[in-house]
Amino acid sequence: MDLDNYKSLIERIVTEKGVDAIPKLVELLTDENDEVREIAFETIQRFGDNAKPILLKIFKDRVHRAQQNDIVLLYLIDVLADMEEKCIKQDLYQLLSRYDNESAQLVIYEALAKLGDGDTVIDILCYFVLEDEYKDQLAEQAIMALAHIPSEKSLNCLVDAYKNKSFSTEIRQDIIKAISMITMKNPALWDKFTKLNEPELVEKVRQFVY
């Protein structure tokens, strides 16, 4: 089935079933086609908080399966964290050991940051950005996770990362975005930021915000 047909099918299922379509959409998160998975995920997000009870049930069921490297769980973690569903936090810490891929673990670290546990994951996130030998591949994820931790430590980490000239233009732009996010969430950080003697970076963040 081509992509347009998939889109039409998904829209029809959603129109006919409403939130009851969510289990079927979750099944599509295992599709071998990246675009199909993305369409299914975006459709789930469109339901907003109305989807929360069903998503939580599916989440708990999959947690109890104890399957290693469960990709569907990562999608569920992402959307439930966006919904600020804090009841999943304890499960997230336990789920870290089920994934042997650092990129997958970063999805969980970012979810914990979104849910207010940034202090517990900030050190590992800074490690991924500044120290890890695979930082070029993992930096984008780690930087956007840091964007959910409006603290001085997160700010300093992002500023240090920006000084790394080996990072691509795209990653450096992500750093600018992340700094803008944390300074907007915690305006007191702006004064600290402007005193770090990085006038070029300050101006770029200012331009991004305004």
TrEMBL record:
Q: Show the coiled coil region(s).
A: none
Keyword Repeat present in the record's keywords: the answer is: yes
Q: Per the UniProt record, which residue ranges are transmembrane?
A: none
Q: Does the keyword Nucleotide-binding apply?
A: no
The cross-references to PROSITE patterns, in alphabetical order and at most eight, read: HEAT_REPEAT
* Family annotation (InterPro entries): ARM-like, ARM-type_fold, HEAT, HEAT_type_2
| UniProt KW keywords | Repeat
Concerning Pfam families, the annotation shows: HEAT (PF02985)
Q: What is this protein called?
A: HEAT domain containing protein
